[in-house]
Amino acid sequence: MKNLRKEFPALLHNTYLNTASSGLLYDSLLENRQEHDLDFLIGGSTFRNQQQDFLNGIRKTIAEFFGNSKDDTVLTPNFSLGFNTILNDLDKNNKVLLLEEDYPSINFAVTSKGFEVSYAKVGLNMEQNIETAIEKHKPDIFAFSLVQYINGIAIDLDFLISLKIKYPDLLIIADATQFCGTQVFDFKTSGIDILGCSGYKWLLGGYGNGFVLFNTGVLEHITPENYKNAAKNRHYDPSYTSLIARFECGHLDTFNFGSLQYSLDFLNKIGVSTIEKQINKLSAYTKEELSNLRLLDQNIKQRKQHSSIFNIKGDQKLFDYLMSQNIITSLRGSGIRISLHFYNTIEDIDKLLNTLHRYR
């Protein structure tokens, strides 16, 4: 892993603990992006002639990476656009269960559209809280982040499988932006009906790309009848009328989506299981050390599993001090958020810990 750090120039002068805000650009991706634009520069309009085949190849790469079919994989510039497209056509009489203080791209998007909303509390017993809320409110839809962006609490993936078995009619929609790229994951067996993700964080794809995965038959199930009827009664090219076309309106940016495809191949070469082991190692070490310093919330310390995102006690003054020591973090919620990817090391964490000791 240490040799891979050479790919990331930002690591030369910074202790970068901020992938939950943005993944890093790396040298070989930069070269690939430059080649893309050089082809456009030289080819002009002819550059677009192979666009459809190129985008189909990207869908195939995404589908294979996450265990889905290409035909049920949709490209979108980011999670929020895909999610709002889904919400816009759902019956507003549907009841939606959300998690308290989840990412605004989920919670505000749902509440602003007039759905009847209920909430489950995030914390030590989050999974039990979710099941209790389902029994009480009987929602039609459960929409949530797989990993909470403020404190890194991660939902138990086995719980989602059992939840789908127990409530087969519940539409489960997950935002995986803070999850995809951190561990091996098979969408088809996950119990999730719809999974969306932006590619600029753990997937290292840069900005302007994302995707939505649909389980078999779900995309057709959530498509309004008036859309399907209009598609049948008009002799347009399928690129304008297919189920996927609802999400992929207009021209997609091959520069941005090509970057995502390149990064998925890059992660595959490293090995997703290798990445998962490195992240788990860093997360376990960080959790133990921050617990010893009494900087973690009690809920985080007591949960058996956790992501590589942590929120430590601190304010603007500490944040600024860390920045002055070239330690890059984020202010989130009532504390300072740190987040670790495979390019981080134990030495990075030790630098943070030593800096915190000096500050105290």
Automatic annotation (TrEMBL):
SUPFAM superfamilies: PLP-dependent transferases (SSF53383). InterPro entries: Aminotrans_V_dom, PyrdxlP-dep_Trfase, PyrdxlP-dep_Trfase_major, PyrdxlP-dep_Trfase_small. One of its GO terms (molecular function) is transaminase activity. Keywords: Aminotransferase, Pyridoxal phosphate, Transferase. Pfam families: Aminotran_5. It comes from the Bacteria. Residues 45-352 form the Aminotransferase class V domain. PANTHER family: BLR3095 PROTEIN, CYSTEINE DESULFURASE. This is Aminotransferase class V-fold PLP-dependent enzyme. It comes from Aquimarina celericrescens. The lineage of its organism: Bacteria, Pseudomonadati, Bacteroidota, Flavobacteriia, Flavobacteriales.
